[in-house]
Automatic annotation (TrEMBL), chain A:
It comes from Bradyrhizobium archetypum. Coiled coil: none annotated. The chain crosses the membrane at residues 12-35, 109-131, 138-161, 167-188, 200-221, 258-281, 323-341, 353-374, 386-404, 410-426, 469-486. This is Tripartite tricarboxylate transporter permease. Keywords: Membrane, Transmembrane, Transmembrane helix. Pfam families: TctA. Signal peptide: none annotated.
Automatic annotation (TrEMBL), chain B:
This is Tripartite tricarboxylate transporter TctB family protein. InterPro entries: DUF1468. Residues 17-154 form the DUF1468 domain. The chain crosses the membrane at residues 16-36, 48-70, 90-118, 125-145. The keyword S-adenosyl-L-methionine does not apply. Keywords: Membrane, Transmembrane, Transmembrane helix. Pfam families: TctB (PF07331). It comes from the Bacteria.
Length: 502, 161
């Protein structure tokens, strides 16, 4: 009953005209960046992070969330029609989605992707409503030791799932922690690694780091190649899947939804792993696995449902524990912090309007996305024809303006350009930026909780293994750290390794 | 592929250099941690986490170096093989020039030439399109930010914008 009252309260907040407008802007931009290859939700969210300052916290966060789950919808359009994933979670959709389009079935492929996304998104929201308050009530009992261990686990999971060498990913995570610690020590107020620069006293901003590593570096990488697009030119008809399509897709959608939601909750996991996992599962369960790769609708329905359910699930650790499970959620945490809010176990009780408003807006946003992605598909197809030689300079200009507006400081523009160049060379040498960014956000919290637990336990390190949740997290982290040393596990890791930056 | 496998001990083994840079960074972080004071385990100081993170960085960098020496790694050249490597160099040069000119010349006088250069140098856009885009987009952004959002962009020594 309480949940229903809260949901009604949430809809009251989400249906305010200003919040509806922000929600629409969010899902529209999300679809836009999902459709356009080369720009992902991370770049778009970091670009728009400063804009959230102009409205209420609810409006800003509703818009940021909209960009994230909107990009999951939009990504499938590019995958199906152009065979280029609009964002990383849609890589798998290219395999069968584009084959379907080539066979003249672009309509059903787009339709099932949109309906699958909607159904999974709705399920994830209902689950979020039910799980988050319960988890938050448990999380109140968490002490600094549990928080420290959970963050360590989150970082280790992300490094485990990052493409390439795990040593490189771990090195990047350490660099992220160090960058996060630049500025005044929160306990002793001593300046650290500021090199005498006043601009560094408050630390390096999240926006210039993320926009440099993901926005500028992505453009630099893209300019290296001639991007060829094989756009399906036939008229897109029959967006509503047939009865046979629904029958074939029902199972994959259900399994993808549940798998995606569970993987989304895990720190370090997320939409990309969920979509790959769902595809592998469907291929294994299928009686005709040879159809996969040749236009099997199950290969579109399962992964698309999984990545949307994961996007919903990823809100749980952020909302209930205050720990962002991936880079996108780290940016959302940034939006909360800009407004002086700290997501965590107390947020649901202390700020119910915000929490339930965001949840309700996500449902409204899912409905908006269904309209944006089906009847208006033609508009997105036209957009796919926008030339990159015009798009890239515009992205660069927008990132510069976005960074400057976030702090009104030219120094941040220098920081962004520096991180753009560093990010480009990092990617060229096989160092992924995702662990760095997550560690950059978690670094100060990680240090704070480590120092607090050591002070509280009077230097007794066993505090981390005497507390069951902390011990379980650390044990799992150790297993993941050691497992790549075993050849069988190394192969499995390579199979699921993801590229968060794409 | 031969290019990738025969650079075990050579100086152009990019993996080796990546590891060495990591090692140097780790060493610097350890030194910074020590300089900031470690404190004790009962009361960790400002340099405590930095110091141990630096040690971890050195360990991971050492693992990368060992792997680079044992298994070899791609040369720097192979990383940029079959790519238009001059394009990112041009974009980086434009961005650095923009960064230096932003404070002095202000947003408008810096961003218009930046747009012209990017539009013409990445994959040349026709002049008929380059000029209006390079003029209208920065001007439009400047107008929205200054007039609608009341955000002051740098105006430079000529106080334009």
């Amino acid at each position: 009953m309480d949940t229903l009252i809260n949901v009604a309260h949430g809809f009251g907040v989400a249906l305010l005209p200003i919040n509806l407008l922000y929600c629409f802007i969010g899902v529209f931009i999300g679809t836009l960046v999902g459709v356009l290859p080369g720009i992902g939700p991370i770049s778009a969210m970091s670009l728009l992070l400063p804009i959230t300052l102009s409205g209420t916290p609810e409006s800003g966060i509703i818009m940021m969330a909209g960009i994230y789950y909107g990009s999951m919808y939009g990504g499938s359009t590019t995958s199906i029609l152009v065979n280029i994933p609009g964002e990383a979670a849609s890589v798998v959709t290219c395999i069968d989605g584009h084959q379907m389009a080539k066979q003249g079935r672009a309509g059903p492929a787009l339709g099932i992707a949109a309906f699958g996304s909607f159904i999974a998104g709705t399920f994830a929201l209902v689950a979020l409503m039910l799980v988050a308050p319960k988890l938050a009530s448990i999380a109140i009992a968490f002490g600094p030791a549990e928080y420290f261990s959970l963050m360590v686990l989150g970082l280790v999971v992300l490094t485990f799932l990052t493409q390439g060498s795990m040593a490189k990913a771990l090195l990047m995570a350490c660099v992220g922690v160090v960058l996060g610690l630049i500025g005044l020590d929160s306990i002793t107020a001593q300046p650290r690694l500021t090199f005498g620069r006043v601009e560094l006293i408050d630390g390096i901003g999240l926006v210039p780091v993320v926009m440099g590593l993901f926005g500028i570096a992505e453009v630099l990488l893209n300019t290296e190649q001639v991007i060829k697009r094989d756009i399906i030119n036939t008229r897109i008809t029959h967006l509503l899947p047939s009865r046979a399509d629904w029958k074939a897709s029902a199972g994959p959608m259900s399994r993808g939804t549940i798998m995606g939601f569970l993987l989304g909750i895990l720190p370090g996991g997320g939409a990309v792993v969920a979509s790959f996992g769902s595809y592998a599962l469907e291929k294994r369960l299928s009686k005709t696995p040879e159809r996969f790769g040749n236009g099997a609708i199950e290969g579109v329905a399962g992964p698309e449902a999984a990545n949307n359910a994961a996007a919903g699930g990823a809100f749980i650790p952020l909302m209930t524990l205050g720990i962002p499970p991936n880079v996108v959620m780290a940016l959302l945490l940034g939006a909360f912090v800009i407004h002086g809010l700290q997501p965590g176990p107390l947020m649901i009780t202390q700020n119910p309007g915000l929490f339930w408003g965001i949840v309700a807006s996500m449902y409204i946003g899912n409905l908006m996305l269904l309209v944006l992605n089906l009847p208006m598909i033609g508009m997105w197809v036209q957009l796919l024809k926008l030339p990159y030689n015009i798009l890239f300079p515009l992205i660069i200009l927008f990132t510069i303006i976005g960074v400057y507006c976030s702090s009104n400081n030219v120094f941040d523009v220098y920081v962004m350009i520096a991180f753009g160049v560093i990010g480009y060379f990092m990617r060229k040498l096989g160092y992924e930026p995702a662990p760095l960014v997550l560690a950059f956000v978690l670094g100060p919290m990680l240090e704070n909780n480590l120092r607090k637990s050591l002070i509280l336990s009077q230097g007794n390190l066993t505090t981390f293994i005497e507390r069951p949740i902390s011990a379980a997290c650390l044990a799992l982290a150790i297993v993941l750290l050691v497992s790549p040393l075993l050849p069988a596990m190394r192969k499995k890791r390579e199979l699921v390794a993801l590229d968060e930056g794409a | 592929m031969s290019n990738d496998s025969d650079v075990k001990f050579r100086l152009n083994n990019s993996e080796l250099w990546g590891g060495l840079i990591g090692l140097a960074l780790g060493g610097f972080v350890i030194w910074s941690g020590l300089k900031l004071k470690l404190g004790t385990i009962n009361d960790p100081g400002s340099g405590y986490v930095l110091f141990y993170t630096g040690i971890l960085m050195c360990l991971f960098a050492a693992a990368i170096i060992i792997a680079a020496l044992a298994e070899g790694g791609p040369s720097f050249g192979s990383r940029w093989q079959n790519t238009r490597w001059t394009k990112p160099v041009i974009v980086i040069a434009c961005l650095v020039a923009f960064a230096f000119s932003l404070d002095t010349f202000g947003f408008l006088l810096s961003s218009i030439p930046l747009m012209v250069l990017l539009l013409r140098l990445i994959d040349p856009v026709r002049w008929q399109l380059t000029i209006p885009i390079a003029l209208l987009v920065p001007l439009g952004m400047w107008w929205i930010l200054k007039r609608l959002l009341l955000i002051q962009l740098p105006s430079g020594i000529f106080e334009i914008g």
